[in-house]
Amino acid sequence: MDTAAVVAGLLGAAVGALVAAILLLRRPSRPATRRAVAPPAAGAGPSGPAGSSGPGDGDGAPELPGAALEVLAALDGPVVVLDGADEVVVASPAARSSGLLRERRLAPAELVEAARATRRDRQGRRLELQLPRGPLGRGRVVLAVRTAALDGGHVLVLGTDLTEARRLDEVRRDFVVNTSHELKTPVGAVALLAEAIGDAAEDPEAVRRFAGRLRSESQRLTSLVQDVVDLSRAQGAAVPGAQAIVDVDAVVEEAVDRCRTTAEDRGTAVEVGPPSGARVRGDAELLTTAVRNLVDNALRYSEAGTRVGVGVRRAGGAVEVAVTDQGIGISPQEQERVFERFYRVDPARSRATGGTGLGLSIVKHVAAGHGGDVALWSQVGEGSTFTLRLPEAPAPDGRSTHP
What we know:
alpha+beta; Beta-Lactamase; Helix Hairpins; Heat Shock Protein 90; 21% strand; elongated; disordered N terminus
């Protein structure tokens, strides 16, 4: 589903709530259903419906129907009601936290102007705002805001938070750019090598040399395409509900078997712990891909003659698959970034061994899609341990299977 559809759905829901609120506010109210709401005091926290201030003290504060306040309280996004003097009558907690308010008034000048224009001609306005997330840093909150005129000079301001949608758009664009960049190198190399083979047709030795390099680049290209496909599947995987019960020991066995050739070529031993009997609910192929990526990553960053250990244990209703290596280790600064797409701790080593920089990102998304997570311990010069944690599947009788 694209961002436009998501935003349209959110705005549609806001419009429905807006209509209901307007109808309630315009409906004649009996004294028993009316309540006075004073403007919020500076720095005061929410204490009523929708985070509004409490009842007024009878000094002429604007009155709003209690039913309308309940409708506004049910809205998730920022909600503000202004009186004829542009002072805030009702403000939701989301309106305060998003930066729309400064004491008793709206903070963004363009939104104040939109509210005044709406009060004059009773025509709603739409605008998009980017507000500072806080006093420090460069974080921004993106809001789609609508205004509507109410009776008595009141103006209703409704906001929809687009921050996450915009972030996902940015991530998607970055992913496309990064993937295109990563594809250029092997594709360009294949083209050049093919041309070189054609030029060296009379030199069998050169043809064999170029053909070997062409095979290497084609394998790298194949690995990159496969990892992009795996990442797409992992990102689209939902938290398992009625999915199959998966034998974790079988997953580990299959994942290690797929890495045997790489381990033998690098002269690194892979040792697997005893069977655990652990089971999880999920997609066996995705889980195998995740464990294989952890083992493959350990092999790529290990020297010949070292060992890679893979173990499974059950603890507190969770299943932990730990992959430990005796490799180069990862510095604390880099540990925060290793799960990013295309990030490489050692770019030269990764390219030399055929790494794509997507393996750990795939692991992270597979874990999240199965309701789990992945943790990292590492020390430079000593090695690393990646631990994939997943919820343990209940036994057939409905009880937990952990000891």
